[in-house]
Design a protein that fits this description.
With 382 residues, this protein is an alpha/beta fold. The chain has 2 domains: 130 residues, Alpha-Beta Complex (Aspartate Aminotransferase, domain 1); 241 residues, Type I PLP-dependent aspartate aminotransferase-like (Major domain) (Aspartate Aminotransferase, domain 2), CATH 3.40.640. 41% of the residues lie in helices and 14% in strands. The chain has 13 helices and 14 strands. Strand 3, helix 5 and strand 4 form a beta-alpha-beta unit. Helix 4 packs across helix 9 and helix 11 packs parallel to helix 13. The longest helix has 22 residues. The structure holds pyridoxal-5'-phosphate. The site of pyridoxal-5'-phosphate has 13 residues, from helix 4.
């Protein structure tokens, strides 16, 4: 356990909350979650579910049938991903879906390729599963997505898993369809499992269709774990509902594993998540449009600023600029601490994601707060 750090993003959240509780107005550019309430349809469904005594008891370990059916319909509608509800394991957030999958797949010493910058938990989870995380660095110039040649250079006989996250946290990068297809075929050829974390899958630019590696390369379905959930798209991070979609042997293993840990997410929350997928798609679409507009605001505000490099994010609700004011790479951790303490702007230092000199800027605050936060940030730069 001495090798396991506390999640860096959780640390920022706590520091900002402490400041907020002491009465200081904090400009929240650090949150990895929507700032809006969950959709009214979800809250109403949860109220009805809480009054239903059937949901006061243990639920089926793989998830309540209403939710697994809703997941199958949703995936078919939005991703063209045909699947049986039996291929779905409901988990406590997308986080537990990733963790269950790594615990189920990874033997001691197996290597897990993780393109970086990446979500803070992948490398730690790979280690906790007994594996060895192998970073494949990507840059803003490459759009923060790896090419097959880079993955091939990282492949060894111990490579077991590749983690893909598109749209990505912290970069907002979206894998181009042809590159995703090439990567999927490469994994197939070499018998490498793919964990496709699609928790931001629908948060794209208008007109872009959600794309999963498993629909891009259907033959991959026997060695692909799709991770998805309601947290981000439906502003439901606190409800703790996600799911894993995979081949029968993985679902069986992950369900057995989960039966000895959390059993299942709260039955009432599962019913609310089913309502989100069926009744709250309009609300999700409005939030998607808000994030797209705000990502654009960040791009406009930062473009042309000397010493700032930004790959325009195409999805999720993040931007990930690099700062080198006066040509000197920013000490992101020192700056983020000072920015919060002295200028009351919360961001997350890039080092947390394996990319020093960057800051993750979240576009979930409303437009005025976002723009004021950005102005303060620019004024505070050395
Ligand atoms: C890439 C990525 N995957 C998974 C998660 C976890 O999602 P959940 O809250 O559904 O567990 C997050 C949350 O920040 C994330 O950014």
């Amino acid at each position: 356990m001495s090798a396991v750090p506390v999640s860096a993003t959780a640390g920022v959240r706590q520091a900002a909350r402490r400041l907020d509780q002491s009465g200081v107005r904090v400009f929240q550019l650090g949150a990895g979650e929507p700032q809006t309430p969950s959709p009214a349809e979800v809250v109403a469904a949860a109220g009805r579910a809480a009054a239903d005594p059937r949901l006061h008891r243990y639920a089926p370990g793989q998830g309540i049938p209403d939710l697994r059916d809703a997941v199958a319909d949703y995936r078919a509608d939005l991703y063209g991903h045909a699947l049986s509800p039996d291929a779905v394991l409901v988990t406590c957030g997308a986080k537990q879906a990733v963790f269950n999958t790594l615990l189920a797949l990874v033997d001691p010493g197996d290597e897990v390729i993780v393109p970086t910058p990446c979500w803070v938990s992948y490398p730690t989870m790979a280690q906790l599963a007994g594996g060895v995380p192998v970073a494949v660095p990507t840059t803003a110039e490459e759009g923060f997505t790896p090419r097959v040649q880079q993955l091939e250079a990282a492949r060894t006989p111990r490579t077991k898993v590749l983690v893909l996250n598109s749209p990505g946290n912290p970069t907002g990068a979206v894998y181009p369809a042809d590159e995703l297809r090439r990567i999927g075929r490469w994994a197939l050829t070499h018998g490498i499992w793919v964990i496709s974390d699609e928790v931001y899958g629908e948060l794209l630019e208008k007109g872009s269709e959600p794309l999963s590696v498993v629909t891009a390369v259907p033959e991959l379905s026997e060695q692909c774990a799709v991770v998805h959930g309601v947290s981000k798209t439906f502003a439901m991070t606190g409800w703790r509902v996600g799911w894993l979609i995979g081949p029968a042997r993985l679902i069986k293993a992950a369900t057995a594993l989960q039966s000895h840990s959390t059993s299942h997410p709260t039955a009432v929350a599962q019913q609310a998540a089913a309502a989100a997928l069926t009744d709250a798609r309009d609300a999700a679409e409005r939030m998607r449009a808000d994030y797209q507009r705000r990502r654009q605001l960040v791009v406009e505000r930062l473009s042309g600023v000397p010493g700032v490099t930004l790959a325009a994010p195409r999805g999720a609700f993040y931007a990930f600029p690099r700062f080198a004011p006066g040509g000197r790479p920013l000490d992101d951790e020192e700056f983020a601490t000072r920015l919060l303490r002295e200028h009351h702007v919360a961001t997350v230092p890039g080092a947390a994601f394996g990319a020093p000199s960057h800051l993750r800027i979240s576009c979930t605050a409303d437009d005025d707060e976002l723009l004021e936060g950005l102005d303060r940030l620019l004024r505070a730069l050395p």
